[in-house]
């Protein structure tokens, strides 16, 4: 029960595994899995950043601007 | 480009006027849950997307995952459990219930799950201590036996004396865009500003387009500055010392957990939802007593390469007599004897004694504002 999170296995080439293992010596990472998880999260996050930002409808945005003007946040 | 909302989309859990009226006209048909001010504010933050991607209070899967991994069960970084506790089961899973703050129906909730939890585990994992002298731990120990998870819809705003200063993520996002800011650094505060804060904020602002000062209003301890004092003090500081086109002030309501490193990440996530791209992580951020190391919160951010907001670690500022100005430990070569540390506690004592702090500690205009209040502190 200590760890309910589901894990799965992916394959990476053995030489790459060895390379990572060597690389993480003396860092805060305790396992190759931890390191690979870290790197993948980082890569995915940077890919997502490229995606288009959410937009509001024009009507909605106009309403918000009105309130911001009324409150003195916009001229 | 301002930050994308956490989890990808800005959550908004407001109902259309007609639906709202219908629900309110049928309110007697729903089981009722009374909630405290802190939970009401959590609801408001969920509904307006301050807590995106949460659409409601955590179910057990997400709750356990937050405790164990500091992530929701879908792997999104999330460090503070946002939960609703009850003492008695007067309704079932699958029911819709109404949440009341006092006599005011605040929200409808679709009960997905009612579950038990281990308070000591909660305390230990979130606060790193089970000591009930810790205010966050004490709060957990005072909670009900069960937690209720499920999505919510906001029906009424929680009464807010500072509505004029309280912006929602949709509003700050439009504001930042209108001002042409692409990079924005957010500053979290619960205090009136002294020169140390000003130094840290301006050091950060040097690297981005805009500064977003975001004081937290909410539950206060005896001796804290009152909310209106903090707001007025910042307004005055802005008027005299901040560039008009590069700084803005808006408040957010939130009940502090004092969870130190974990809460620092939570604070960053909230500001990401407001559109900030950077977040200043202070010394002993969100700490209390000496449960956390002074810079422990900085290390915590190493766990989140996918956070989506950049933490800025700026060392505590102090006045150096030899340098003749505000500096920090990284840039001043002089020994301790030249340093004057600016402590909030010390300033408070001076102000209470009617003594004006020296100008290198607090701007005289800010002092005047505090003095203009007959009772600036919570009693
Ligand atoms: Zn110096």
From TrEMBL, chain A:
InterPro entries: Ribbon_hlx_hlx (IPR010985). GO terms for biological process: regulation of DNA-templated transcription. Residues 40-67 form a coiled coil. Keywords: Coiled coil. It comes from the Archaea. The keyword Coiled coil applies. The keyword Coiled coil applies. This is CopG family transcriptional regulator.
């Amino acid at each position: 029960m200590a760890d309910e999170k589901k894990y799965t296995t992916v394959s990476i080439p053995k030489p790459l595994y060895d390379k990572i293992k060597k690389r993480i010596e003396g860092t805060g990472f305790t396992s190759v899995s931890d390191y690979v998880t870290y790197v993948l999260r980082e890569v995915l996050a940077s890919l997502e950043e490229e995606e288009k930002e959410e937009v509001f409808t024009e009507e909605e945005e106009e309403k918000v601007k009105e309130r911001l003007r009324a409150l003195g946040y916009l001229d | 480009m301002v930050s994308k909302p956490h989890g990808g989309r800005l959550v908004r859990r407001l109902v259309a006027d007609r639906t709202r009226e219908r629900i309110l006209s049928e309110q007697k048909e729903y089981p009722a849950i009374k909630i405290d001010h802190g939970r009401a504010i959590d609801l408001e933050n969920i509904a307006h997307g301050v807590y995106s991607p949460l659409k409601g209070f955590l179910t057990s899967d997400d709750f356990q995952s937050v405790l164990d991994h500091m992530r929701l069960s879908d792997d999104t970084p999330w460090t503070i459990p946002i939960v609703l506790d009850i003492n008695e089961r007067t309704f079932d899973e699958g029911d819709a219930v109404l949440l009341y703050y006092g006599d005011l129906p605040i929200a409808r909730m679709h009960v997905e799950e009612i579950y038990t939890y281990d308070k000591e585990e909660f305390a230990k994992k979130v606060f790193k201590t089970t000591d009930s002298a810790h205010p966050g731990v004490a709060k957990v120990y005072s909670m009900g036996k069960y937690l209720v998870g499920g999505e919510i819809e906001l029906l009424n705003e929680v009464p807010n004396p500072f509505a004029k200063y309280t912006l929602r993520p949709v509003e700050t996002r439009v504001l930042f865009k209108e001002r042409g800011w692409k990079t924005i650094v957010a500053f979290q505060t619960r205090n009136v500003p002294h020169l140390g804060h000003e130094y840290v904020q301006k050091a950060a602002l040097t690297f981005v387009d805009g500064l977003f000062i975001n004081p937290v209003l909410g539950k206060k301890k005896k001796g804290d500055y009152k909310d209106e004092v903090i707001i007025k003090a910042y307004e005055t500081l802005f008027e005299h010392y901040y560039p008009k086109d590069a700084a803005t002030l808006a408040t957010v309501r939130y009940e502090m957990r004092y969870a130190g490193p974990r809460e620092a990440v939570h604070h960053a996530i909230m500001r990401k939802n407001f559109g900030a791209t950077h977040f200043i992580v202070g010394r002993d951020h969100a700490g209390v007593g000496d449960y956390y190391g002074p810079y422990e919160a900085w290390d915590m951010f190493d766990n989140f390469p996918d956070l989506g907001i950049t933490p800025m670690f700026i060392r505590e500022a102090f006045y150096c007599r030899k340098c003749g100005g505000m500096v920090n430990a990284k840039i001043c070569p002089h020994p301790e004897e030249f340093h004057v540390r600016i402590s909030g506690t010390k300033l408070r004592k001076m102000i209470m004694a009617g003594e004006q702090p020296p100008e290198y500690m607090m701007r005289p205009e800010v002092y005047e504002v505090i003095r203009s209040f007959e009772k600036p502190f919570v009693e």
